[in-house]
């Protein structure tokens, strides 16, 4: 009986997990931490920047500080690299 209850609980929990992550209802955030960022518009290299990507589009770029990106964002740490954002 305990095993059946455990299986039912796990089944319901997994169903809720997949329902919560439905692509139709959730915004996808990716935060890229760049050690150096080349700003081709201003012709400068910026240090320690965060690029926030929301649903495959660059939303903003700003200085890296704690809390700069949404907590739910997947973080890609490129702190040791130079990044050149591009457009479609």
Instruction: Output the number of helix runs.
Output: 1
* Helical coverage, percent range: 10-25%
Largest sheet: 4 strands, mixed
The total of beta strands comes to 4
Within the CATH hierarchy, at the fold level, what is the topology of the domain at 27-83? Urease, subunit C, domain 1
Helix-strand sequence:
HEEEE
Average pLDDT confidence is: 79
Any idea what the CATH architecture of the domain at 27-83 is? Roll
Low-pLDDT regions: 1-10
The CATH class name of the domain at 27-83 reads Mainly Beta
Approximate strand percentage: 35-45%
Query: Structural class from helices and strands?
Result: alpha+beta
| Overall shape | globular
Radius of gyration: 19 Å
Describe the fold and architecture.
With 88 residues, the protein is α+β, with helices and mostly antiparallel strands. The chain has one helix spanning 2-20, and strands at residues 29-39, 44-54, 57-63, 74-83. It has a domain at 27-83: Roll (Urease, subunit C, domain 1), CATH 2.30.40.10.
Keywords:
88 residues; alpha+beta; four-stranded mixed β-sheet; 1 helix; 22% helix; disordered N terminus
Topology:
Blueprint: H1 2-20, E1 29-39, E2 44-54, E3 57-63, E4 74-83
Parallel strand pairs: 1-4
Antiparallel strand pairs: 1-2, 2-3
Describe what is shown at a glance:
With 88 residues, this protein is of the alpha+beta class. 22% of the residues lie in helices and 44% in strands. It has a domain at 27-83: Roll (Urease, subunit C, domain 1), CATH 2.30.40.10.
